[in-house]
Design goal:
The chain is of the alpha+beta class. It has seven helices and four strands; from the N terminus they run ααααααββββα. A four-stranded antiparallel sheet has the order 2-1-3-4, covered by helices on one side.
Amino acid sequence: MESARRLTSRRRPSSLGATLWGAAAYSGRPPGWLVAEGVVVGAAGCATVAAPGVAGTLLGSDVLRSGDVGIMVALGLVVFLLLLRAGRALVGPIAVLGACWAVSAPKAATEVLLVWGGEIGSAVVTSVAAGEGRAAERHYCSVRHPDGTPVPGRIWRGCNATTAPGDRIGLVYDPQGRVPPRGLVASGHDRGLLAESLGTGLALATLSTVAVVRSYHMDPSG
């Protein structure tokens, strides 16, 4: 692919539009090899940004699960696209999506573990506290297992203003203990977070593909 880039003219229009959106210029559709290269970069970039967080979730590493390493990988993707002279108006949103995907990928991995590998049980509420700030509309329950073992952290799904100590709420947990348990909503599993996270990853891969395809100027006369 790179040899094809070298053999074909790389002359680009020195215009504001080319700087912002890329120097793409084709006679008809972009060539198939360029689209394929864009897809590879987009898919590989998306997977690489998510990899540290997903690995941290599976291995129980808080450092990897925090998303900080994934954000650094996302910055590497941005630098790579800048070296390809991708449009600045595309690289900016890619940087934002990359950071969001790095943080949300571990959450998506957690949801996958709980939705497809988790076990459902119940827990006894020991105390209820109202949220603060942006989470003021939420309520947080401290719970314990029926045998009296405390559940680490606080649960907000399934916990509301009418919940009182002694009540039971549904709980889903990973039998291997890789991720913290969480409460169940009335409809069962809450897959909204998973869909939102995967949507961010798909947007990152798609926009990266477009940035690569539009970064290349093919001289129609060549």
